Amino acid sequence: MNDAVTPLWRASQVFRLITLLYAISYEIASMGYYSNSQLSWLFVALMAVWTGLSASLLSHAVLPRWKVVLADQLVVIGLMASTRLVADYDWYSTHQTLPTTLWATNAVISAAILFGPKGGIASGVLLSVVSAIVRDQLNLDLWTDATAPVLVSVGLALGLASNTAKRAHAELQRAARLAAITEERERLARQVHDGVLQVLALVRRRGSEIGGAAGELAELAGEQEVALRMLISEQSEPSTVDTSRVEVDLRSLLRPQASTTISVSTPPDPVLVNRFDAEEISAVVATALSNVVQHAGPGARAYVLLEDLGDHTVVSIRDDGRGIALGRLAEAEAEGRMGVSKSILGRVEMLGGTAVLDTDEGAGTEWEIRVPKGKK
Description:
The chain contains 12 helices and 7 strands. The protein is an alpha+beta fold.
């Protein structure tokens, strides 16, 4: 497993092996003071076995690391408690516990790398309390014993380092994805420009010259040419929105809906909206524009205006078509046509917004869609 903190895991296991050597040397120096030195060597042997096993498991992530880290805490606590089995009160109350403070730090380091500073501090506090209980030093002044400060400080420092490494790794991956996306967009834009757009422009030009049915084909080709050019222009603009956020620029969803008969006006600055809300607003606009094409009459033009009012997003869709007769929407809903009631009013209501229709027969229609920001 190769992730952001893999180097930290490997370095920490090297440190674990070094602290084992220190623990063995401490055992050699202290065994003469133990009441049961043979039993103490058994615990040191267990310490050595767990050092090698945990180092392998944590470095290569053979098992879920949280299980190994939890076992690490339990093993260290057990070895600390075993001090009372190998030494009398006069010794263990004034000296390090059997695994030594330095070797016990490995459990704190593992918790800090896996869970961050909170996990590291929690592990440091836990082992400090266990050490104080085993040594019967709960009332000892903190500054006369380095155990607690060392363990808690290590947990905090390694936890912060782990979080920093994870954030840096995520930013690097995000930058690589953005670079790949940008490169692919530019490649596709070149291909579209060199092929599809030129063909559409030719069809529009020749169809207009021929007239008749070819003129209708020319008009459709012209609409698609405008839409494609808007899309390429939009995709070529540098992104101003952090892709890790759940917000998107609503302009990028509305601009591609422009055509030779549809004008879309947006602010110069990004209009950041929750991604779900943005997609729903875009769908509302698409439905309203579809109604213009189907019902406003030949030659009708539509105008879309996007406004960012800070706490609200307002979209106006206006056309100069034949308008809607009084009572026609109710009749359409009764006939089972749900374009307005469901696709427009239903969506806007779900977003917690309002949709106001201003229309009259022969005077065109205008929708004003007002949606609050931050709605989930």
